[in-house]
């Protein structure tokens, strides 16, 4: 599959083939094509194109089967014994699987449990507490809203100062901006690896190094990276990271998030939500809180076992397909989307709100027009499902294991037609 992106860019379909011909050829030669059949099929009468895999991934057949088996099997037959059989270890086992297949993280550094918001709060507070005497948090203005709100709440709670970095919505945070913003007062810097609006990929290694030079710690949000863009947390010397599992990992609505904590930091930091399961010897129910050793201290309450079943199926699929091959197809899908949109009539007024350079573009492409907010519900009614992001962007979320090129073509054709009608 190597070179797919370049192949799409150089295909002259205006003379030799139509864009639909190219889509069919790309599907016919796709080494990952078989994975599309692993997903629960949609009703083609009501769903023409699903282009929102970066918000909610499609369900896997394996998830449906395993959920049914769990209810009638382990839950029904083992009941409370399931906790000591194996459930208590699921946060660790699934965390290690995510770390290995998608995060470049050695075992013992990733755990699955709470929502992304709760994980962000716990890790941010842990990082700040590990840098006593420092009073500033650094974050960019176009980070995902939850990330910004969490920082605002913590700053208010601890009487800290937020140092905002103004970022271009069509690109993202740069190393130079971070270097200019961090300093001796920096306790924590929080950034998204892939920008939720534009899809821009931040330079994780260089930015992390810049924060470390200033003596601060870094927390990365990987929600738009995991399962789509290769991540190398250990190699980049990252301190903390969080991410959701319901996008490219297909964990389902509200699936639990994961937290990464660098091994060398684990026993020296403390997260603020002390629950029974994060305590040493949980079942002793003893008086007073003593944090567990290692990554387990970042768990708080009872793990959402049923919700972890689809997450496990999703990360196993990513591991089987291979994150590098997934990335290659992701680049090809986004290149195809750009090529098709570039061929639209200029009078449509549609512009590109994502990087054109695939090396700094994640798994989605944003296209912009002033009336896309009003146009999106009409597309949904037609069975074409992208999503809208203010002020004027339609995001094309392309999930490599479930999105085909022909499906993407159908969706783009519908968007073009709807834009022309308006």
Key features?
422 residues, alpha/beta, Aspartate Aminotransferase, domain 1, 12% strand
What is the secondary structure topology, with strand pairs?
Layout: H1 4-10, H2 19-28, E1 49-50, H3 61-78, H4 82-85, H5 90-103, E2 110-112, H6 116-129, E3 136-140, H7 145-158, E4 161-165, H8 175-181, E5 186-192, H9 204-213, E6 217-221, E7 240-243, E8 258-261, H10 263-266, H11 305-321, H12 323-342, E9 351-352, E10 364-368, H13 372-381, E11 384-385, E12 387-389, E13 393-397, H14 405-421
Parallel strand pairs: 1-11, 3-4, 3-5, 5-6, 6-7
Antiparallel strand pairs: 2-8, 7-8, 9-10, 10-13, 12-13
Helix pairs in contact: 1-12, 2-14, 3-11, 5-11, 6-7, 8-9, 12-14, 13-14
Describe this structure in words.
The structure is a single chain. With 422 residues, this protein is α/β, with parallel strands linked by helices. The chain folds into two domains: 4-61 and 322-421, Aspartate Aminotransferase, domain 1; 64-319, Type I PLP-dependent aspartate aminotransferase-like (Major domain) (Aspartate Aminotransferase, domain 2, 3-Layer(aba) Sandwich), CATH 3.40.640. The chain has helices spanning 4-10, 19-28, 61-78, 82-85, 90-103, 116-129, 145-158, 175-181, 204-213, 263-266, 305-321, 323-342, 372-381, 405-421, and strands at 49-50, 110-112, 136-140, 161-165, 186-192, 217-221, 240-243, 258-261, 351-352, 364-368, 384-385, 387-389, 393-397. A seven-stranded mixed beta sheet has the order 2-8-7-6-5-3-4, sandwiched between helices. Strands 9-10-13-12 form a four-stranded antiparallel beta sheet, with helices on one face. Strand 12 (387-389) and strand 13 form a beta hairpin. The chain starts with a helix and ends with a helix. The model has no long low-confidence stretch (mean pLDDT 95).
């Amino acid at each position: 599959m190597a070179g797919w992106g370049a192949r799409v860019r150089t295909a002259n379909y205006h003379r030799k083939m139509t864009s639909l011909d190219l889509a069919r050829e790309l599907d016919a030669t796709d080494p990952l094509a078989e994975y599309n059949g692993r997903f629960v099929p949609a009703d083609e009468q009501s769903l023409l194109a699903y282009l929102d895999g970066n918000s909610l991934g499609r369900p896997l057949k394996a998830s449906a089967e395993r959920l049914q088996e769990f209810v009638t099997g382990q839950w029904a037959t083992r009941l409370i014994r399931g906790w000591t059989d194996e459930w208590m270890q699921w946060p660790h086992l699934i965390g290690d699987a995510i770390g290995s297949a998608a995060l470049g993280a050695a075992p013992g550094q990733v755990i699955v449990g709470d929502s992304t918001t709760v994980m962000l709060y716990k890790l941010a507070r842990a990082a700040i507490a590990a840098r006593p005497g420092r009073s500033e948090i650094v974050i960019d203005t176009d980070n995902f809203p939850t990330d910004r709100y969490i920082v605002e709440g913590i700053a208010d709670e601890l009487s800290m100062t937020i140092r905002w970095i103004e970022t271009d919505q069509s690109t993202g945070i740069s190393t130079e901006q971070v270097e200019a913003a961090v300093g001796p007062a920096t306790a924590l810097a929080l950034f998204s690896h892939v920008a939720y609006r534009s899809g821009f990929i931040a330079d994780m290694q260089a930015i992390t190094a810049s924060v470390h030079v200033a003596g601060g710690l870094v927390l990365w949000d990987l929600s738009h990276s995991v399962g789509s863009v290769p991540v190398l947390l250990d190699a980049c010397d990252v301190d903390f990271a969080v991410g959701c599992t319901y996008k490219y990992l297909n964990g389902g609505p509200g699936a639990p998030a994961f937290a990464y904590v660098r091994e060398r930091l684990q026993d020296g930091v403390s997260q603020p939500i002390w629950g029974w399961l994060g305590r040493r010897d949980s079942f002793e129910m003893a008086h007073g809180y003593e944090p567990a050793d290692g990554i387990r201290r970042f768990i708080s309450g009872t793990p959402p076992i049923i919700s972890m079943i689809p997450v496990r199926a999703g990360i196993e699929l990513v591991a089987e397909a291979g994150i590098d091959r997934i990335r290659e197809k992701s680049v090809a899908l986004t290149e195809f989307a750009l090529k098709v949109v570039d061929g639209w009539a200029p009078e449509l007024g549609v512009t590109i709100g994502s990087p054109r350079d695939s090396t700094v573009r994640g798994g989605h492409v944003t296209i912009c027009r002033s009336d896309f907010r009003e146009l999106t519900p009409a597309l949904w009614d037609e069975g074409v499902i992208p999503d809208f992001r203010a002020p004027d962007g339609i995001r094309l979320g392309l999930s490599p294991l479930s999105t085909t090129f022909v499906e993407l073509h159908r969706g783009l054709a519908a968007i073009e037609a709807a834009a022309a009608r308006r």
